[in-house]
Amino acid sequence: TIYSIHHISNELIHKKLWQTMARKYLITAAAAVCIIILASVPQCCQSFTTTMHEVHPTISKRRNASPHLQMIFRELVSNDEIDLRVSITSIQKKDDFEKFLQEDDRLCVIKFYAPFCKACKAFGKKFRKLAIDRGDPINSIGEVARHGDARFAEIEFSSKLVKELGIKKFPTVLIYRGSEKLSEITCKNDAIEKITAEMDSHLTLR
Q1: Distance (Å, rounded) from C-alpha 135 to C-alpha 30?
Q2: Pick from 140, 164, 167: nearest CA to 82
Q3: pLDDT (tens digit per residue) in 82-123
Q4: How far apart, in whole angstroms, are the C-alpha atoms of residue 104 and residue 94?
Q5: Which of 133, 120, 116 is nearest to 186 (CA)?
Q6: What is the pTM of this model?
Q7: Counting CB atoms within 10 angstroms of each CB, which of 4, 54, 76, 114 has the fewest?
């Protein structure tokens, strides 16, 4: 009986050792596969980037890409709503301000802010999103993806325009059409909703 128990114990130990070794080999093999995959990802990305550079004429003018491929690439990029960048004009001088207002007959939404103002930073993110939704967002090849119903600009507190226009609180948004000031909104938590409502009302009255 003692011999049988000893023999069975040895077999169990031997079996567990094999299971442990097999498990280690499987883990090692899986790790090796992961390393191979990860090592191949940069090469794939580089290959894709090189292809895009060949297709995009403004990135690499020395490469002669197929006009058909260029057209397809431009079409894909211009319709990509995920990769749009905001278009907000930074204004410092009065001449630039007047030029911005007279550029076309659309609404002009202008933010006045201070870099040290926490409320301005929080509002700035919402303002950029509004500018993408209602303004002229730029796609990844630097072209206007679509024309919105308004143009957006921002003026920092250090500009002389802040005093000339009577801005006393930050952030503040002014809405113009041409040289006519339509609305002035001191921005709080519901500022974006108020700005959107003002824009819609002026567009409806037009």
Answers
A1: 50
A2: 140
A3: 678 989 999 999 999 999 999 999 999 999 999 999 999 999
A4: 17
A5: 120
A6: 0.62
A7: 4
Is the distance from CB of 186 to CB of 121 less than 8 angstroms? no
Provide φ and ψ at 90, rounded to 5°: -90, 125
Q: What are phi and psi of 65, to 5 degrees?
A: -85, 155
Which tokens belong to 114?
């201070």
* Distance, C-alpha 89 to centroid of its chain: 17
Per mean pLDDT, which of 7-11, 62-66, 104-108 is the most reliable? 104-108
